User: What shape does this take?
Amino acid sequence: METSLYLPVKRYLEKLGFTVKGEIGGCDLVALSGDEPPIVVIGELKLSFNLEVVLQAVDRAGAADEVWVAARLSARGKGRESDARYRNLCRRLGFGMLAVTATGDVEVIVAPATTAPRRNPKKRSRLVSEHQRRK
Assistant: This one.
């Protein structure tokens, strides 16, 4: 299940200094930095890399500083994570790609772009508010 990916990705982002919470505003995970204004990172999780996770990431991009797509690493390493076209698509869209191994380790396949995408301030503020209200 996708929920099995949540904990490894959460730990990875927490090591980077983010506060991570799940299922906020329809996003699988939202991470905020301690800065003011916070850096908003949205993560979308799927069992395998596919078009659906990219489309979800496109929907979330307006509310985030960074968008990461994460999926389980394929058994033989021959899945979409090794497809240069898929990696290039994520790179061109500015999304990061994370692969979760069978042991729960997280590997960065593509780092997110450093250029900021267009923002949707209303959607962004709703996500930040809900994240801060949750316990």
